[in-house]
Amino acid sequence: MTATRAARHRMPGRLVAGGLAALVVAAIALVVGVFAAGSEPTENVLGIGPGEVVDWSLSLFRLISTLATVGCAGALLAAVVLLRTDGGPLGTQGRRAVRDASNAAIIWAAASFAGAVVTSAIILNTPVSLLRYRFDDALGVPEVKALLITGILVVALAVGIRRVQTSSAAGLGVLVAVAALIPPALTAYPRNEAYVVLAGAALVLHVVAATSWVGGLAGLVRYGRASRDGLPFVLERFSQVALISSIVVLLSGLLSGAGRLAAQAGGFDQVLDAATTAPYGGLLIAKTAVFLLLIVGGWIHRRQVVTNLIEPGPAFWRLVAVELLVMSIALGLSVALSQTG
């Protein structure tokens, strides 16, 4: 590859800085959420088990996996929807998007496999160095199997989409990505809870919709800015995706949380009390408030641009950056929720 082509495909420094900022903000939100809920890992006084560092590493791998998932989904959504070519050959930005999706999928897969190892150690209460003696037991843990299935699917995704040339082929990658999201969501709740089917099904919808929404906004920043002539069309398409996804995120998140609280409190009639007293309820309320802010503010902001045909300038992109940072807070709180009983 020549120097000119390499420069053309290099990610701008501001986007790299923005990605790192999102990671830091999400990590801070995660730590604050975990401590606020009182679910922070503690060291076993007897020195038995995987240890506090391993417990914290599970949160880290979940956060990395979540952000990589968003990056992968955003790039695929850009190639298939935002930069749509009706199944024809991908343009320059579309080909860049599928390469980015492949790179993000590699990180997603690595975090999933690492998470499977750490999850095995925590659930089996065994140091990581001794897991090789309990290999069969680890493979029998549903949460571990779910992460391994996700990792395998995402590796196939990373390889399969690396050099696709059409939006229809990239669309197949979207289906694989959605399939990879489902196994961990199905094992997010204990199987003996009476409301697990309701909460689990809602969570699957929540994860898919949230990934499309947040990833789509990230894709808009990454690829929409470089496609200035087609930016109004890209922005209008994203507004449609964001509106549908945000509504599904809000409703499915509330339904999933209500199912979890109902299982803890003993019925749906106790959900409101549990929401105001249980640590999980407090985090759920905080996360819901953040998403409501994003839904209302983001929709009004983008509709003004699309309806009035305003040329998106620096002020517009700064507001989009703020949206992404607020979304990072929501993602960090989501991971904290997954750590809270």
UniProtKB/TrEMBL annotation:
Copper resistance protein D domain ranges (all copies): 234-337
State if Transmembrane helix is listed as a keyword.
yes
InterPro entries according to UniProt:
Cu-R_CopD_dom
Pfam annotation, one family: CopD
**Source organism superkingdom:** Bacteria
Kindly list the residue ranges recorded as spanning the membrane. 60-83, 104-124, 144-161, 168-189, 195-220, 241-258, 278-296, 316-337
Alphabetical keyword list? Membrane, Transmembrane, Transmembrane helix
- Keyword Transmembrane helix in annotation: yes
Name the UniProt record assigns to this protein: Copper resistance protein D domain-containing protein
Whose protein is this, by species?
A: Kribbella lupini
